[in-house]
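Lab meeting notes turned into a lecture example. A postdoc, R.K., suggested we walk through two folding results consecutively so the class can see how the record format repeats. The first protein's sequence and structure tokens come next.
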Amino acid sequence: MSTEKNLKPSKELPLGFVDRQEKELLIRDFVISNIKEVMINYGFQYLETPSFEYTDSIGKFLPDKERPDEGVFSFKDGKNWLSLRYDLTAPLARYVAKNYLELPKPFKRYQLGTVWRNEKPGPGRYREFLQFDADYIATGNLIADAELCAMISEILKKCGLTEKDFTIKFSSRKVLDKLFEYIKVNSAETRLKILRSLDKVDRLGWKEVEKLLGKGRKDLSGDFTKGAGLTEIQINEIKEQLNYEGKKITTTNPPPDGKTYDFDQWSKKWGEKEAEPVSNEFIEFEECLTSFGLKNCIFDPTIIRGLEYYTGLVFEVNLNFEVRNPKGQVVKFGSVGGGGRYDNLVSNFGKGIDCPATGISIGIDRLVFALIQKKDFKIKITRPVIICVFDRLQNDKYIKILKKLRASGISSEIYPGEGKLKKQMEYANKIGSPAVIFYGDDEIKSGKATLKNLETGNESSVKVEDLANEIKKLL
């Protein structure tokens, strides 16, 4: 920090961080209340984990660097690196491993918490944001995965969206694993680069992702990202098997245009023994979705999900309406939620723990950003009635009025600033107060206060004991 006396701190925020005002926060509270209602109905337990974890526990670090700065905000505490949590899933896995013997199996938990990502921000995508997670621990039953999709669908509907407003797409990490084997990519590092590249298709388009799969890509700012180093043959095989230039894809419920995904190509390329378990899993999963009454779910092998710990089914929730940035421009918004099966994550924390798991997340702030554009929220913001101050020697009388109003459930305050009546009225109008109370010498002598309705400008003389009832009439 500079020691110059004339240096003033910046009033600007770092990129990816934002001050949230009351209307947005009230809409967020509305979303959260709906989430909690659904979670109770579905039988999930509420859990909270700390904001900081050991960096190696959340799995986001680079061993070839002194500072683990890939995706996380970190600092060194003695010999150990600590990081602000990147998501809520890795802390859950650590919690389950620690309390494995005491927990019921399966264990269903949900959590609402802030997470931090040291990544490039974008429209509705922040470095600090509130996230909701719901997870099934210690079950491989596909009903659990389907119920998570039903649950997130119910939450979105409660928040004002219809089935036409969003689509739940699903695939499986097993498809990618088989594809990697087919194109002979065995390096874990290369596979991870491919996954991260493919996860950007929606945002960048296939042509740009093709560069990331090959030699590399330079973005608009001039930054160069080294590619995965695949050959043209390997890239074309990925494109063909994942159908990037193909169709809207589904398993058993063909879309209106009749274009469906051909599972037979897997048998031809991987062999029937390898392909059958994967395709059968999708068919069983979709049958569960159908039983839950979900009609807006489609199979899409291009769904990747960026985190490397997914092992099976993955799902993603995409909005079907336009979202605009603060400048009014339509943007590629991406998903508001997603998740999948991570059957090996808990076992990373201890030997002998066989703990299949599946979960789903919603970025609350991203969802609120989109909902505000889609739905007209009738949010009633409560502002206090202002008791104007004429003489500080009469503070005890103002406080008695204040206590009576608050005891009647009326938001109220004695003018908290300094200044004459004009300043007090300016304050009341600025905050949107519904009314002011005048209680000067004349009012004190008469035992009646003057109540001014700031919406109409009307004034009335009211007995102090009747103030609460009169104020309730104008609220």
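The second example is placed directly after the first for contrast:
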Amino acid sequence: MSYRFMRMLVFFDLPTETADDRRNYRKFRNVLLKGGFIMLQESVYSKVMTTPSVETSVKNMIVKNKPPKGLVQVLTVTEKQFEKMDYIVGEAKSEYIDSDERLVIL
């Protein structure tokens, strides 16, 4: 069986003016982190997925935990498309292993 790796990107712009807004922001961000997303930039998170059914379940999880105000957008691209991203200024930094490569140590 061949797997086609995909990458889900979540972009969000949430208000942080009141204490409730800040609480909703933290709650939504924590849902993403617990769901396996990693931060690419502030308010841009990414997750690698192996099948379309995983994509559907993750998208449902985001919809279920959406904040009451603000803007949340989801974009799914193939891993090859994601790898073609150009860095105009700066470079990729990651504290996490963010790859679909498999490691076997014997």
